[in-house]
Design a protein that fits this description.
Layout: E1 2-5, H1 13-20, E2 25-28, H2 30-49, H3 72-79, H4 96-105, H5 119-127, H6 148-161, H7 168-173, H8 177-208, H9 218-223, H10 226-239, H11 254-257, H12 259-281, E3 289-291, E4 302-304, H13 312-340, H14 342-345, H15 368-382, H16 405-436, H17 446-455, H18 465-480
Parallel strand pairs: 1-2
Antiparallel strand pairs: 3-4
């Protein structure tokens, strides 16, 4: 299938999911092409009406050369300058799904004519999504003011193939489509990850035999927010009444009682990322950008310089996800330790096999929470706030503040992977708790249990649990990144 883009309203998170994760192509409609041609015509008319007009990157140089006025005969040569020199970063590459989101987001400035891009350039951008691999785009080294470094990696080949006119290169490498693509990916990933987290934590809740009152439906109105309501309802639905037998008669530890609140917090962070992504996918962030301000001096509107290429909202949203993932790592580690402590869990001793000589230890899981602590502390490191650089950076001259959006994405990505590892370590401990008490796995958690048993057919056997937990994490991530 093909995503048809006619106006900015067509650039939705659902469209981003289809293009980035499902690999669908993109086509610009005749209406969009007409609007872009009209925008291009406006630029021509403005230049003809006032040959001395100041338009950044068109009648002046760019960056540290912004004060340099270009003569009309110099503009053509400036327009043909390739951005290849700005492709200066290297290191770990972004996943192709993220690159596809960024390329899709690049069309937002174009489709209604605000950027005055040549329609041929816009069609070339859309064509990048219609087959073939994406250009490699490093996630590291993206410390520039704005997104010129990342966007130069993406579009320098296009500039070489399609001869650009005035402003076309600026249209390709300015604005904030990278931030849009990064936060869109974070939002889509978060919803999948939280569903997986809810299942593992529900399995742990049942393994601990925690009182069902901790998830009572009445709490949904008491706690008074939609994110906690989702968490309470989701956990209740997954446990589905539990095993039906006697349960713990007194409250479980805090780490069990606050599961719905912590999942609710993470769901709120995901919703924030979704809101920012939805806004950003339809936001015009070009610099300079055409504005419809018409007067005697500007009969065709005018181009103004802006800071739209800097998207701090995306950074804040992804930082909130990193923090939520780190908090859930703490919960997963506490659950693992509490389940294995018979004095707290009231479970039969899982470490000693009375049927073996001298009570030989079998299936010792006591070190799994230690591994969880490692993932927890690593996630905590990634959850530190992503602030503007403390010293002048991002280039020189006018470029005195760098955008930290790639750092924010990388941190939430790694914090999320730490959570996957912590959950993968908890799942076999929780399932073992049900096995030793001969309680059934709730039906809606049967697939999760099957994932664990495919790796650990005998949870009571003597074995190194680390490699198996890693295999479970990989299986969970196939659900998170389908």
């Amino acid at each position: 299938m093909t995503v048809m883009v006619e106006t900015r309203a067509d650039l939705t998170l659902d469209a981003a999911h289809r293009v980035a994760w499902n690999g669908e192509g993109v086509s610009l409609t005749p209406r969009a092409l007409k609007a872009m041609a009209a925008g291009r015509d406006r630029l021509t008319r403005i230049l003809e009406h006032d040959p001395e007009v100041t338009i950044y990157g068109v009648t002046t140089g760019a960056g540290q050369m912004a004060k340099t006025k270009l003569k009309p005969e110099e503009r053509k040569g400036w327009a043909k300058m390739s951005p290849v020199g700005a492709a200066s970063s290297w290191g770990d590459l972004l996943p192709e799904r993220v690159v596809r989101m960024i390329v899709l987001a690049r069309l937002t400035n174009f489709v209604e004519g605000h950027a005055a891009v040549s329609p041929e350039i816009a069609c070339g951008v859309a064509a990048m999504l219609n087959g073939g691999p994406m250009p490699p785009l490093p996630a590291k080294g993206q410390g520039g003011a704005g997104e010129i470094l990342s966007l130069s990696h993406l579009f320098m080949d296009l500039v070489e193939r399609i001869e650009p006119e005035e402003k076309d290169v600026m249209c390709l490498v300015n604005g904030s489509p990278s931030a849009t693509g990064l936060v869109s990916d974070a939002a889509l990933t978060a919803y999948n990850r939280l569903q997986v987290a809810a299942e593992v934590l529900a399995l742990s809740f049942e393994g601990f035999n925690a009182p069902l009152g901790h998830l009572d439906a009445e709490l949904e109105a008491y706690w008074n927010n939609p994110h906690d309501r989702w968490a309470l309802a989701t956990l209740r639905g997954l446990i589905d009444g539990g095993h039906g037998g006697e349960r713990r008669s007194y409250q479980a530890p805090v780490s069990y009682r606050i599961i719905p609140r912590m999942l609710g917090q993470a769901r709120r962070a995901a919703a924030m990322a979704e809101d920012v992504a939805t806004e950003s996918l339809q936001a015009v962030t070009d610099n300079p950008v055409w504005v419809d301000v018409v007067d005697d001096d500007h009969p065709h509107g005018q181009f103004v310089s802006t800071g739209g290429y800097h998207n701090p909202h995306a950074v804040m949203a992804m930082d909130c996800l990193s923090a939520a993932y780190a908090n859930l790592c703490v919960i997963a580690e506490r659950h693992g330790a509490k389940l294995l402590d018979g004095n707290v869990s009231l479970l039969p001793d899982q470490l000693i096999d009375p049927d073996t000589p001298d009570g030989m230890r079998r299936g010792y899981m006591g070190c799994l929470p230690m591994a969880q602590t490692g993932y927890e502390e690593e996630a905590r490191m990634y959850s530190q706030a992503t602030l503007l650089p403390g010293s002048e950076s991002g280039g020189f001259g006018q470029n005195d503040v760098a955008s930290p959006v790639f750092l924010a994405w990388s941190k939430q990505q790694r914090a999320g992977e730490c959570l996957d590892m912590a959950l993968a370590s908890l799942a076999p401990i929780a399932l073992r708790a049900l096995d030793v008490t001969k309680r059934p796995v709730p039906q809606k958690l049967a697939d999760l249990a099957g994932t664990v048993r495919a790796v650990f057919p005998d949870l009571s056997g003597r074995q190194p649990f680390g490699p198996g937990a890693g295999a479970i994490a990989e299986a969970l991530q196939r659900r998170i990144y389908p």
